[in-house]
Amino acid sequence: MQPRSESGPPIATRPSLSTLSLGELRELILSRGLPEYRYRQLARWLYDKGAESFDEMTDFSLELRRELEREYALERLEVASRRDSAVDGSSKYLFRLADGAAVESVFMPTEKRVTLCISSQMGCTLDCVFCQTGQMGFYRNLEPHEIVGQLIPLWKRVRGTGTRTNVVFMGMGEPLHNVRGVVAACRLIMDPLGLGLGPKRITVSTAGVVPGIRRLARSGLGVRLAVSLNASTQEARERLMPRAAKTDLRELVGAAREYARRFQSRVTMEYVLMQGVNDSPRDADRLAALLAGGPFKINLIPYNPGASPELRRPSREQVDRFAQRLFPQAPAVTVRWSLGPDIAAACGQLHVEAADPPRTRRTASPRERGGS
Ligand code: SAH
Predict the structure, then answer these.
(1) Which CATH architecture has domain 11-71?
(2) Rounded to whole angstroms, what are the CA distances from 177 to 136, 191, 206, 283?
């Protein structure tokens, strides 16, 4: 058999199938005079089955496989590392992108379902005081195929098992600063020829980008929305999330209410609980008053350490007390004890070390190359 690079144009010049939208994929098949069912087969290999080479596409003739391979690349995101938690079955993946950028994603199994947490940007512009992603700075938005690409190896672990699976945009970045990429990715995740997940199985979490909430609503996708509130007053929010808090808290709650009404699904209000910062009984009362009677759920997230030595996680009793104070006055309250604490995969802990320079591929040092 000929080496790959001799069987067609150099790999780099072949368009990559995974960067095409489903519409473009269909066009490609039809323009070659192939029947439409070939498009559906190809889409299934690319997404649901996550093929890594044309040779896996066993319902295609050898000739068709070779023909496709001559003209197209089947690039996947490179899994640079995978760490499995010893305590709760979660795994953190580090993906290396084509330009050297890197992002993290998390696989989280619980008794009843699996949650796949993905990133929408490398880094983040927001710099919230409690979150490590902001501290690494911002490099770039991810393209739709780089967002969906994170799901391919994670999906392989659940497909066919009948496990209820959710996708959450709660990894690195602010999804609503990348609405174009996130909406296109959601369309692929929802398409029966993509991963076929319903809109209620997908949650987009935002630090509070109101124009983004409105654009997401206009997309008509109807995915679930979560808003990282994290404070019960505008002043406290400005201290904790100075950039995100440029939008007034009440306007944000109003935009969330509109979203919930439009899609008839409650919006989750996330609230990272930090000891002595936002966990007093008064905070609970103000939070309840702010959200009173609204179409909301409250999700309390005990702070995961790492971003600041000054911040502490409240004790289990303090978290319970806060939840109980909230509960009779507020809509559904749940507590999220994040998975993956031993592999730094919990909420707010995703970041890529500065030693992995983005944009430029890491090249081996003379010593690594075997020089002196
Ligand atoms: N930028 C988006 C999505 C990423 S963060 C957003 O802000 O919603 C996902 C969730 O993790 C958010 O609710 C955020 O408030 C929370 N989070 C960030 N840092 C955290 C930390 N150190 N401990 C617990 N939760 C944290």
Answers:
(1) Orthogonal Bundle (1.10)
(2) 17, 23, 9, 29
